[in-house]
Amino acid sequence: MLKLMKYLKPAILSILMVIGLLVVQAACDLALPDYMSNIVNVGIQQGGIENAVPQAIRKSEAEKLFLFMDDQQVDTFLKHYTLYQPGDTSQKDYSRFAKDYPLLDKEPIYGLNTKDKDTISTLNELLPKPMLVVYGIENNMFEGMGQQMPEGADPFKVLGKLPKEQLSAMREQIDEKFSALSESMSTQTAIEYIKSEYQALGADVNNLQVRYLFWAGVSMLLITLLSMAATILVGFLASRVSAAFGRDLRLDTFKKIESFSNYEFDKYSTASLITRTTNDIQQVQMFTIMMLRMVFYAPIVGVGGVFKVLSTNTNMGWILAVAVMVILAIVLIMFGVAIPKFKTVQKLVDRLNLVTRESLTGLLVIRAFNTQKHEEERFDKANSDLTRVNLFINRTMALMMPLMMLVMNGITILIVWVGAHQVDTGVMQVGDMMAFIQYTMQIIFSFLIISFVSIILPRASVSAQRISEVLAVEPVIVDPEHPKSFDPNTKGILEFKNVSFRYPGAEDDVLSNISFTAQRGQTTAFIGSTGSGKSTLINLIPRFYDVTEGQILLDGVDIREVTQHDLRQKIGYVPQKGSLFSGTIESNLKYGDENASEEQLKKAAEIAQAMEFISSKPLGFEEPIAQGGTNVSGGQKQRLSIARALVKKPEIYIFDDSFSALDFKTDSALRKALKSETTDSIVLIVAQRVSTIMNADQIIVLEDGKIAGKGKHQELLKNCEVYREIASSQLSKEELAV
Q: How far apart are alpha carbons 579 and 607 in whole angstroms?
């Protein structure tokens, strides 16, 4: 998989943008539980009051608090609170405090004069305990705190007259009394005191709660919209990157396959190459988009969720550890069972494509031999094998989601059970428990994402390996580092010098010591029994294979010393099995020369004896050609293939048994017209019929890969027994005597 990552280099900027947007999305998602916790803790339970630091407090109430604070704490309070006197409008912010707290018109109050978070945090630690004591005394929640109060006396006046030593001892008793109460619970209890104080100041407490809930809701909505925008942009960019990745990979794979010689095509079946170019690349492309959208996102959420959980006021981190271990165990067991099966899926897809392709291309033969049932059984077996493996994988992976949901729900129940006890003992608030549940679910969800992507990873990894195999192939036939050019002054000479050839891995030569020269304006024909090496010899000229020994010289230059493009530019090749492409007759003929004029196309078609059936078509040259030329006959396909080579006007014509589907009359007319058209070219013909080549300037007879005879028709009848046997089997005595 890593070998293919180089194809993502052009998209590195987009990938960085995706990662940045995923950080934004994760930050938004991780912020929402905090807001939910604050809505419960602050908005609902605390009435919109965020901490135990009152914005304003009556002077008389502040003096009660001072009784339970040391001198340093009192100084800290006075430093950050301003005393406002009734009617003194010259004081800063007087009008704001008078509006929010109407009692200021009658009674002096202290107003908070800072918004510094650190200072407010300090005051939040300092004020709750004095507030709890004052609130408890005012509401008769406990008596005297060790002191006997005169009946009907104001307890705060009595306490104010006590010596400093006694007050200091009392403060120590208070600290000991409230030491078991958590900071959050102390703050929440002190909020009740602040609420009563705000009511005494004339503030609208209900409006305070509504305003807090409204702005918290607005903030959550904005964060959600930001997360949604980031998600949409991530999807857009990830899709573009993945699509470009697939496009470039397909293009390079196709280019690599185009560069294959017959050596490489012998290693890979056509069905396998098609699967690798389509299905395999699709698997890798799908994994890429999942990686950009989920694999990068999951760790950010997971790590962020862990930090958030550790920062909450809970002691339930062990629950998270249990959840993670259970999930990892499930994932490892599932993958241990399923991953080996992924490696066989793509091979089974290859097999299914192979059987399908063979059945469709050989449909007429299948019907002719009544073997439909046999082919159905072959297809059914290939299909059943693939289905069986896919079902096993899917059933195994289908268990993952229910198991994960069971873990998630079980963990939720465990958190509620443990959290409820902590809420009951005052160690934790309800909102903190809810936030913990949300963060835990986000962490588990991140593992779910990774697990889901990991389902695709094994198959994508196999597909990537199969693609890499194709891309890593170094073609045996390559252009030289320093190619030569053909000499424009030397034209029209093709020479085989002691050429031998054997297929890779074979022990014996297919061709041995082949030597001959083909001149411009001459026709050189090759004949021999089946398997004598005729087509193999012809395939050496365009370098579909390279010679094992000897040389092939064209215009005095070894064909291995020039580029394949320059070499093949000089060749017009007509294979034994005519190959046409989907399009029109015109587009197929222009394959030889895309700039060919209409007159050139007509002339080539006339020479190839194809004009008659082209004219009979309703659309003429615009007549559609189906894939593989299935809507024209074998003879028509051969004639169009010959016309395509004629349009190119090459220096060398290679006809590899290209007249076999033609009747004798058409064959004779075509060869006669071809003779006048190829006076400046080398013509090489492979044929099975003696009548096709008997007028050739040079006939080379092959037997078992060796030259058994060389010469003209009459010479070979006299001097070559192999040729005489072939001719005797095809020609009458009268024809042999001519």
A: 19
